C-alpha cells in the first residue's frame, strides 16, 4: 500500500532537517514538521504547553 503524500513529505522534511542539523536537534525538527502537518489536517496534537509555545513561536 503506497504511503500518503503527507507522510512522504514529512519523511522528506525530517531527512533534510537531519542533514543540516545535529542529531540532538533532529527529533525536535521532526516534531515541528509533524505537528504542523497534523494542524494543517485539522487534527489536534497532545503536546506539553511548553512545546506548544515553542512550536507557535516557530510558525
From TrEMBL:
Record's protein name: Uncharacterized protein
Native organism: Arundo donax (Giant reed)
Amino acid at each position: 500500500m503506497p504511503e500518503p503524500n503527507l507522510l512522504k513529505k514529512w519523511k522528506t522534511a525530517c531527512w533534510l532537517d537531519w542533514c543540516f542539523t545535529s542529531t540532538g536537534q533532529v527529533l525536535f525538527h521532526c516534531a515541528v514538521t509533524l505537528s504542523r502537518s497534523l494542524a494543517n489536517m485539522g487534527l489536534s496534537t497532545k503536546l506539553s504547553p511548553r512545546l506548544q509555545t515553542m512550536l507557535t513561536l516557530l510558525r
